[in-house]
Amino acid sequence: MAQGAMNNMLRFAYSYQDEPRSFDGPLFPTVDILQDGAVYANFGADLFTAGNLRQTKVFTITDEFNWNVGINKFMAGFQYEHTKAINGYMLGGAGYYVYSSWSDFVNDETPKAFAITHSNSPDMSQFLAELKFQQYSLYLQDEVSVSENFKVTGGLRFELPTYPSLKNNYNEEFAKLDFGGQHYSTDQLPGAKVSVSPRVGFNWDITGDRKYVLRGGTGLFVGRMPFVWLISAVGNSGVGQTTYYYTDAATAQYKPHFHANRDEILKDLYGGQTHSKVELPKDPTIIDKDLKMPSTWKTSLALDMRLPGDVNFTLEGIYSRDYNPVVITNRGYELQEAKLTLSPNDVRDTYKIYNSGRNVYLLENWKKGAYYYSISAQLRKNFDFGLDLSFAYTHSKSRSYSDGIGDQVTSAYKTNTYSVNGINEHELGYGTYVAPDRILATIGYKKEYGKHFATSVSLLYEGMQMGYSGSWGYSRYSYTFSSNVVGDAGANSLLYIPATREELDSWKFSDAASYPAKEQRDDFWNYINQDKYLKNRKGKYAERGGAVMPWHHQVDFKLNQDFYLNVGGKCNLLQVGVDIKNLPNLLNNSWGLYKQVINSSLLQYKNGEFTMNKNAGETLTSTYRDFQSFKSTYSVQFSVRYIFN
């Protein structure tokens, strides 16, 4: 833009995201039939599919004004964003039955567990939770050309989020409940608060010929939390819909017989009629009145160099720290004065649910402490005859309060949130999705010939710590008990690792003839000593995400054959290709396999006794096995593309 010139750009944007879920056939309950405690038979609709809907409508207006004055390039902008989120979520919307045996099912005995979610409207039409969100943003920026080789950019962004009232979402009976002197309302929302985000960056061409370039920046960036968490304050309030469930038939208020029709289930539950009464919610989501959107202070510094032989080299460091991270605290549980002593060196906090018997999932901000950093180095070389080479290495580390897994608040609260003293303590752990080390190397070659053809071939190598715990892929994992021992109805509790074999003698193990206590102690100690992580944590608690997966090495192959076509005086491209993922596994079925943790829940703790777990009746003697899954195997994809010029 010319000196002294000004311009203004006004943009309107609208996006609509629709994610419905559906199934074939009529509505039918989900049924699990157990045998010896494990699922023996399953039939019916998926538990989470009936009534599952997610829609997001976003309307944005952006106005930006630019003005050049001397060495300054000014920009001022304003943005208005309106978001309307609609969510349909009905846990067991068609009914969910769990039977202890096939005999119990065919003889119509009382289910071991049961769940259903239904609308509270008189006609039983599905309830859809809605939430509207607005944000006003004002931002200012100045790019200063200090010299031809050095530029500095500074900026300031102001954001004001607002939440329209949650109409008709007040559950009066729930507001009366007392949780240790605290009362919560299902329609409370945070007030409008302005956030201020300063940022500055620079780019320095040290020699003036782009041979050495130093660049970097630092600034505060405000993010978003999942809207599905916010909107669950509506769906879980008990006003628009009711979720009834039990996991213990002996204490259940309603115990229905099996019915294939949802209306018949409800009539059985509620004495011959369907149900439209507002009930106390069991798992409400409460939004803290002082809640702020999470933000991150991010800093980066990089050096780009052109080395002898036209080799490009980049060294970059990134550090970010979280401010106002959003966590989920269950205020339905009270911290007890009494401690739980599992062993002389393992004493923990304990929790008890309040008399109301309700969970209260509170969305609130937590203290700063979570962070991420990485250091990366990359080499790249492009040859004139068509050969391209690159090599990159990244070392990184992340500490977080959770992995952010779970699109529903109830699952996000307890999924991978392993802890020592309970989830409400929000202990820092490692991000299980961040590999400590990653190597990426590529080699590619392209040859054009005959004026109308080109062939390109490439190999991609990726090496990093990555494996599987169960059927989920992680770079890190946790060693836990096979249950929660502190009583907060959360994730499994982290293990304490004894300092010596003698210390284990003070632990009370179950003493069965089939697996004597001394043998269990010996097996546990032997497992610790063969495990790379545990043998270095003796006398300490296991950390969430503390154990690192073994290296996984993968090589992918790509071949493209190009045909240049002259169509209407323009050169179009017909490309035929083949991609082979995990080439080594194609060559040898024992190569390229991921490793899987055999069992990361090593101990049970029940009725004051430890029990060493086994795997399929076999003593645990090693940490990993080959992961025999489609995720470990090779795959071949053929492709045909036509590219217009």
Structural summary, described in words:
This protein is mainly β and 645 residues long. Helix content is 9%, strand content 47%. It contains eight helices and 38 strands. The protein has a 17-stranded antiparallel sheet that branches.
Q: How much of the residues is beta strand, in percent?
A: over 45%
What's the shape? globular
Give the count of helical stretches.
8
How confident overall, as mean pLDDT? 93
Largest sheet: 17 strands, antiparallel
Termini separation: 30 Å
Portion in helices:
under 10%
Structural class, by secondary structure, is mainly beta
As residue ranges, the low-confidence spans are none
CA radius of gyration:
30 Å
DSSP strand count? 38
Could you list some keywords that capture this structure?
17-stranded antiparallel beta sheet; single chain; five-stranded mixed beta sheet; 8 helices; 645 residues; mainly beta; 9% helix
